[in-house]
Write a structure and sequence with these properties.
415 residues, 4-stranded parallel beta sheet
Length: 415
């Protein structure tokens, strides 16, 4: 007796296809067959594939650039055609059929898996063909209003952690143009929640939402451009979208926009006074709303060194304390430095050590380095060789070559 579904694909698409197989298995209550071993040559492979195609009455050919150029996937498709199997071509990415592929296989139905209507129709047809008894939600059940669909997606994502169901409802709302759903669907693709990771899809959906003025999507799109996720690195575009989100009060965007501007001066030396002033203003906006990294930059750069505002050690300490007390390792290290050297506060080695140690516990390399040499040389503290060695070990674990050399010279185990 023939079984149900044979899945043909390129091994280069394994993660995407495995996720699709798992969803079909779950939705239909059956087990699709796909080669999980990756044996793509030899008599053993051919016999295995021939038997599997003969045993199944339907082939889902996962259509991608890779599969259309895979000798083995095309041989499977050709054999299914000769054996008169039902074949459905399932687009798993945006690609165009080659003329040769179109000539040989254009007679078959095609489905875009990423299109929720086509995706749902395929599952519905498969249920009818194979008489699935799986108790699943009827395909047309549930809300049709995009806001309600989005809220249902949120329920599945946040409360029940059912990411596949969340994606299904996000997609329905997103395809109706609902910006919050478009953004969330994009981030599901970015994080691989409910769908295989796909930065290109993440960019596409977040862009749709960003162009409608959705602040989170604008921030996400800025992040993609700034870091080269799904697009080529483009700082100008990254800053453009960060600015749009920042102007709507998005605190992470305000912080990163300020960080970009301050980097031009502090790290690259090609910033302007106008850039510094703007950076200060964005840091202040985010810091006042409790953004701990913005608080660190406000205290550790702007007020400490006079970027965009007059130097003011009192204000520097104020903002560093805000950030450090909320656990920021860089702020804790900077605060230790301030107490060690008396910048904005009276010298206090006890407090300096306290903040250096808090920072070092989080793996801040600068703080670990400072503590290692303070204890080794007795700078402000009694000399303590064993304690110094402990910090040299931590430094070595962080990849510090100087620390590794020191430990070897003193017959200590680096790692």
């Amino acid at each position: 007796m023939a079984k149900e579904i044979f899945i043909s694909y390129s091994r280069k698409d394994f993660d995407k296809v495995k996720a699709i197989k798992d969803e079909i298995d779950r939705e239909l209550g059956i087990k699709c067959w796909m080669d999980l071993d990756g044996i793509e040559s030899g008599e053993q492979f051919e016999n295995k594939i021939i038997t599997a195609i003969n045993d199944h009455n339907t082939m889902l050919f996962m259509l991608s650039t890779h599969s259309m150029n895979s000798i083995y996937a095309l041989k499977e498709l050709k054999f299914a055609q000769l054996k008169k199997k039902r074949v459905i071509l399932v687009y798993i990415e945006s690609c165009q059929m080659s003329d040769e592929f179109l000539f040989n296989y254009s007679m078959y139905d095609t489905v875009e898996w990423a299109n929720s209507l086509q995706h749902d129709k395929l599952l519905k047809n498969l249920r009818q063909w194979f008489g699935s008894t799986q108790q699943t939600e009827p395909i047309d059940a549930g809300p049709t209003d995009p806001k309600e669909q989005f809220q249902l997606g949120e329920k599945y994502y946040s409360i029940q952690a059912k990411y596949d169901d969340a994606v299904r409802w996000y997609r329905r709302a997103a395809e109706q143009g609902y910006a919050p759903a478009q953004n969330n669907l994009g981030m599901c693709f970015y994080n691989g929640k409910g769908v295989p990771k796909d930065y290109g899809q993440a960019v596409m959906w977040c862009r749709k939402a960003a162009e409608q003025g959705h602040a989170n999507a604008q921030y996400n799109l800025g992040f993609f451009y700034y870091n080269g996720k799904g697009v080529s690195i483009d700082y100008e575009q990254g800053v453009k979208w960060y600015r749009k989100a920042a102007e709507q009060g998005h605190t992470d965007a305000q912080y990163l926009l300020g960080k970009h501007l301050i980097k031009q001066s502090y790290y690259h030396g090609n910033g302007s006074k106008e850039d510094d002033k703007e950076a200060f203003l964005w840091f202040m906006k985010a810091a006042e709303k409790g953004h701990i990294k913005a608080q660190y930059y406000l205290g550790g750069f702007c007020y400490k060194y006079g970027y965009g505002v007059a130097k003011n050690y009192t204000e520097s300490i104020k903002w560093l304390l805000c950030s450090a007390e909320h656990g920021d390792a860089q702020a804790q290290n900077a605060l230790g430095d301030s107490y060690e050297w008396g910048r904005g506060v009276e010298k206090d080695m006890t407090k300096a050590i306290k903040w250096y140690e808090k920072s070092a516990e989080q793996g801040n390399r600068s703080a670990v380095h400072t503590l290692a040499y303070m204890y080794l040389n007795g700078w402000g503290v009694p000399k303590d060789f064993d304690r110094a060695a402990t910090y040299f070990v931590k430094l070595a674990k962080l990849g510090d070559k100087e620390a590794i050399k020191w430990l070897e010279e003193h017959n200590r185990t680096p790692l």
